[in-house]
């Protein structure tokens, strides 16, 4: 990755080498030996392509040189196109089908090998490979249409809504400085009327500091409205997805999307969300009542008034907050936070993070740091690269890149590749050589995983980098994904680490947030960056309580969004605005505001597509694991707790039924069985944020 030319050359060598493995995989139809090795061959093919694709994905978003970034984008796009083409290769599909129908072979294979085969077959079937030629062409056309509509929908979701007019008299009662700021920032051809842009600073001030309810109502409706084009784009996207799902044999897009999930069926997801809503709604109603009481006091009313959707932001900021008396960020530098992660991993898993030297040209920016992940008995088991600081040209926000998964490599059989190549002119050298090590308790050698974590934390020029509490949570969350990749080293790339069910993958990372909040964890590392004085936990608890004062209300809103996502991707539903309004009546705790259609701003309707519930699902499981396995906030975070979670969950990646993993670690037979009963049980657990009410 040292130059644009080197990246392009890497892409070409990868494509050439991949074609050899494709040829070998197709030979499985005529060779029982190759049929038995088929899953290994296709998994190697997937690993080879994904290492380069994922590396290019990182480089094109992180590298400061635009020429290098462009070359990475070019390689990324044509290798992704090649990968998509393989999903429509009939010979590969027929070979895999022969493998899955061979009872003798299946009887001698492991669950994880069969799972890899099922995952590949699932991808084939979603591509409509079993359909006649004309219908396969329709699948391709619909898939292209969905990508185009999805891009348009995401673009629309981030666009400002049209400006709205508001009379100057509606600003009466605002703090004078804020009123002047709104008036100076808003322009209108009419003297007594202001024109305000939704999501602007002026709009923000109106929603939070205008006592006049009509002013806030107009602001709320304007920012939550949609243009006819925005609504039409969403409806067209939903319609195209429904057509695609039915064409390839599913009753709905939701059914198609849930094929590799724990929930399995749309009705199971809706059961989970209904049960979760029943659990959380009382706490959300209490949140509403506390805000309504503030409204009652402010308006000097004799009764508790109803709360409108535009009331929350205004009255919440009038409520008293018990804030910490010291600056919490002073106790969380970036360095001590990473040290805290390392100490927690050592306590629980016998694993630590160790700064590592880097070769010249190894990273894309001087601010990147490399950490070795070291097991106390096995030595180095992987690498984490940290790109923490904000800089010009770097994508904003946090990101997690699995550049390389672990897999077994000593049984790759390169001799068989050379026979399949049938030509000495073909370069059989693996495009990217990777180090491998032996694993304790397992035969063979495994390639070392590589994870890149990107954050958006201030500037490296203003050291030490002091983190807010949400930033500390984010570091721990992303490190939860990283440790899953390090410990979850399986024989197959496609079930290694975080390559697991969509509604299971967030469990280790959300659990890290729970562990972070415990006094035992905070005591491991939180100290003042100058004096070294430990952080008084009661001060942190004040901040957490303040930040999570209305957590139940926020979570209930997320339940509504997940339900909307599921309904709009089901087999029968009305238009999106009607469904969103109905959810306010059946599930919501605040009334629907007529004239609004916020759903066109919900970009996750495209990016998650019937799986938005997954984060809530894993929050419920993580909360249960935290209290049951780790003793909750009173837990001591000792090795026995960590070893149990490590051996029962983390080490398997996606190579074992997740219901069995969770059932075993919780010692819960209902959960271990999976199915509808287990899904409903998870909903009954709640997600832990009603503990502050």
Automatic annotation (TrEMBL):
<keyword id="KW-0496">Mitochondrion</keyword>
<comment type="similarity">
    <text>Belongs to the peptidase M3 family.</text>
</comment>
<dbReference type="GO" id="GO:0046872">
    <property type="term" value="F:metal ion binding"/>
</dbReference>
<comment type="function">
    <text>Cleaves proteins, imported into the mitochondrion, to their mature size. While most mitochondrial precursor proteins are processed to the mature form in one step by mitochondrial processing peptidase (MPP), the sequential cleavage by MIP of an octapeptide after initial processing by MPP is a required step for a subgroup of nuclear-encoded precursor proteins destined for the matrix or the inner membrane.</text>
</comment>
<dbReference type="InterPro" id="IPR024077">
    <property type="entry name" value="Neurolysin/TOP_dom2"/>
</dbReference>
<dbReference type="GO" id="GO:0006518">
    <property type="term" value="P:peptide metabolic process"/>
</dbReference>
<dbReference type="InterPro" id="IPR045090">
    <property type="entry name" value="Pept_M3A_M3B"/>
</dbReference>
<dbReference type="InterPro" id="IPR024079">
    <property type="entry name" value="MetalloPept_cat_dom_sf"/>
</dbReference>
<dbReference type="InterPro" id="IPR033851">
    <property type="entry name" value="M3A_MIP"/>
</dbReference>
<dbReference type="GO" id="GO:0004222">
    <property type="term" value="F:metalloendopeptidase activity"/>
</dbReference>
<keyword id="KW-0378">Hydrolase</keyword>
<keyword id="KW-0645">Protease</keyword>
<protein>
    <recommendedName>
        <fullName>mitochondrial intermediate peptidase</fullName>
        <ecNumber>3.4.24.59</ecNumber>
    </recommendedName>
</protein>
<keyword id="KW-0862">Zinc</keyword>
<keyword id="KW-0479">Metal-binding</keyword>
<keyword id="KW-0809">Transit peptide</keyword>
<keyword id="KW-0482">Metalloprotease</keyword>
<feature type="domain" description="Peptidase M3A/M3B catalytic">
    <location>
        <begin position="210"/>
        <end position="673"/>
    </location>
</feature>
<dbReference type="GO" id="GO:0006627">
    <property type="term" value="P:protein processing involved in protein targeting to mitochondrion"/>
</dbReference>
<dbReference type="InterPro" id="IPR001567">
    <property type="entry name" value="Pept_M3A_M3B_dom"/>
</dbReference>
<dbReference type="Pfam" id="PF01432">
    <property type="entry name" value="Peptidase_M3"/>
</dbReference>
<dbReference type="GO" id="GO:0005759">
    <property type="term" value="C:mitochondrial matrix"/>
</dbReference>
């Amino acid at each position: 990755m040292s130059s644009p030319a080197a990246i392009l050359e890497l892409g070409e060598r990868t494509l050439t080498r991949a074609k050899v493995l494709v040829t070998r995989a197709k030979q499985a139809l005529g060779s029982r030996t190759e049929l038995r090795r088929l899953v290994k061959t296709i998994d190697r093919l997937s690993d080879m392509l994904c290492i380069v694709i994922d590396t290019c994905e990182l480089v094109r978003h992180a590298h400061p040189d635009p020429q290098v970034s462009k070359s990475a984008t070019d390689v990324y796009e044509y290798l992704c196109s090649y990968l998509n083409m393989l999903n429509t290769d009939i010979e590969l599909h027929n070979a895999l089908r022969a493998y899955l129908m061979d009872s003798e072979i299946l009887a001698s294979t492991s669950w994880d090998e069969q799972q890899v085969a099922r995952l590949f077959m699932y991808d084939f079937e979603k591509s409509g490979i079993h359909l006649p030629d004309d219908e396969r062409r329709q699948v391709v056309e619909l898939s292209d249409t969905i990508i185009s509509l999805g891009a348009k929908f995401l673009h629309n979701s981030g666009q400002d809504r049209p400006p709205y007019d508001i009379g100057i008299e509606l600003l009466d009662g605002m703090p004078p400085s804020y009123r002047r700021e709104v008036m100076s920032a808003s322009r209108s051809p009419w003297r007594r009327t202001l024109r305000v842009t939704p999501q602007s600073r002026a709009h923000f001030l109106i929603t939070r500091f205008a006592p006049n309810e009509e002013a806030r109502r107009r602001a709320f409706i304007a920012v939550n409205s949609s243009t006819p084009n925005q609504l039409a784009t969403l409806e067209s996207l939903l319609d195209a997805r429904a057509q695609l799902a039915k064409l390839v044999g599913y009753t709905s897009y939701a059914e198609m999307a849930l094929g590799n999930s724990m929930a399995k069926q749309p009705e199971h997801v809706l059961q989970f969300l209904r049960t979760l809503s029943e659990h959380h709604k009382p706490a959300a109603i209490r949140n509403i009542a506390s805000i309504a009481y503030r409204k009652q006091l402010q308006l000097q009313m004799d009764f508790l008034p109803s709360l409108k959707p535009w009331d929350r932001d205004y009255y919440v900021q009038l409520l008293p907050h018990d804030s910490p008396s010291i600056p919490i960020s002073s106790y969380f530098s970036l360095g001590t936070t990473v040290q805290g992660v390392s100490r927690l991993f050592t306590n629980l898993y016998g694993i630590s993070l160790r700064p590592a030297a880097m070769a010249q040209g190894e990273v894309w920016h001087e601010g990147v740091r490399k950490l070795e992940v070291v097991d106390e008995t096995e030595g180095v088991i992987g690498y984490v690269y940290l790109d923490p600081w904000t800089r010009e040209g770097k994508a904003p926000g946090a990101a997690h890149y699995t550049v390389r998964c672990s897999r077994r490599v000593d049984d790759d059989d390169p001799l068989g590749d050379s026979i399949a190549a049938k030509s000495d002119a073909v370069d059989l050298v693996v495009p990217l050589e990777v180090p491998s090590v032996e694993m304790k308790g397992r035969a063979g050698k495994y390639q070392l995983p590589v994870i890149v974590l990107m954050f958006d934390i201030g500037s490296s020029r203003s050291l030490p980098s002091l983190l807010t509490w949400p930033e500390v949570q984010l570091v721990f969350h992303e490190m939860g994904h990283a440790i899953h990749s390090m410990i979850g080293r399986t024989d197959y790339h496609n079930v290694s680490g975080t390559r697991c069910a969509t509604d299971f993958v967030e469990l280790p990372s959300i659990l890290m947030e729970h562990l972070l909040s415990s006094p035992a964890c905070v005591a491991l590392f939180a100290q003042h960056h100058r004096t070294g004085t430990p952080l008084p936990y009661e001060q942190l608890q004040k901040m957490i309580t303040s930040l999570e004062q209305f957590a139940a209300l926020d979570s209930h809103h997320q339940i509504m969004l997940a339900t909307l996502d599921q309904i709009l991707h089901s087999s029968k539903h009305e238009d999106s605005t009607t469904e969103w309004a109905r959810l306010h009546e059946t599930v919501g705790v605040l009334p629907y505001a007529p004239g609004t259609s916020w759903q066109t701003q919900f970009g996750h309707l495209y990016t998650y597509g019937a799986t938005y519930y997954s984060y809530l699902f894993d929050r419920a499981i993580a909360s249960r694991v935290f209290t049951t396995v780790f003793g909750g906030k009173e837990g001591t975070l000792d090795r026995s707790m960590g070893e149990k979670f490590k051996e029962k969950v983390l080490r398997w990646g996606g190579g074992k039924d997740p219901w069995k993993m969770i059932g075993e670690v919780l010692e819960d037979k209902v959960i271990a069985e999976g199915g509808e009963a287990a899904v409903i049980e998870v909903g009954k657990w709640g997600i832990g944020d009603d503990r502050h009410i």
